[in-house]
Amino acid sequence: MKQMSLIEMDGFLKGKCIPRDLKVNETNTEYLVRKFGELESKLETALRECRSAGITIDNLEAKCAKMAAENTSLKQSEKEFNDFCREEFSEWEDDVTETPATDAFLAEIETRRNPQVH
Prior knowledge:
By secondary structure, this protein is an all-alpha fold. The chain has helices spanning 6-13, 28-88, 100-113. It is rod-shaped.
């Protein structure tokens, strides 16, 4: 739908010109009601899509939080394994897996929980 310019709208309202999508025997009032109805329908569709996207984002954030919790647990078990191996084998070298994305995500969650602390 092409947007009317200010001059075109003024001409339409004064009855000097008609829009090309005006239906046969349709009054100006009926035309405007139809156009506002179409816009309202498009707006409702856009709002539905935005809500759906928001739900998807919430679901993804929940999954990320679960994965971060699992990674935290895995990091702890890796630390315990390294501690055990260090005790049993004098030449054991720690090889700790770095997880900067998990660490950053957990820090963000902690900041959201306690904004006054950070």
